Amino acid sequence: MSGESHISSVIVHARPDTVADLSRHLLALSCEIVPTQGDASRLIVLIERSSTRAVAEALDAINALPGVYSALPVYHHAEQTAALAEPMPCP
Which domains does the chain have, with CATH numbers? Predict the structure, then answer.
């Protein structure tokens, strides 16, 4: 394994009547949807890509989907891909 892994979480606000179709589009973009309770027009989406640019491109693609009002990044983490396979030490 080489390179970096970039993991971002995004809040997607969309028209409630488009969430089912939107979910299918997000899965097709290789995004993960986190199950939530509450407002049916908001989704938490995880994006994992190999670069910051690839994350930004995914975010642009999400914002362009029909019914999306906004997709706003909440968290971003980058790490060497090889480090993700290493065991974490216990304190």
Answer: 4-84 (3.30.70.920)
Phi-psi map region of 66: left, alpha, beta (phi>0 left; psi -120 to 50 alpha)? beta
Angle, CA 66 vertex, CA 62 and CA 70 arms, to 5°: 50
Alpha helices for the chain (secondary structure H): 19-28, 52-63, 81-84
pLDDT tens, position by position, 36-84: 888 888 999 999 999 999 999 999 999 999 999 999 999 999 998 888 7
Between the alpha carbon of residue 74 and those of residues 3, 5, 9, 48, 87, the distances in Å are 23, 17, 6, 14, 26
CA 11, distance to chain mean position in Å, is: 8
